[in-house]
Amino acid sequence: NSGVNHWKMAYSLCRYRRVITVHQISPEEMHRIWNDMSSKKHLRC
What we know:
This protein has 45 residues and is an all-alpha fold. It contains two helices and no strands.
């Protein structure tokens, strides 16, 4: 499944919307990603 990754991926809003899991993300990165995705949830890719 291309939505499951066992390695770190560079953040891209549209790409991260399609994945199920991403590993090796720090809590700080996770928080930034969450905030970005939450604030742009209506953005079309």
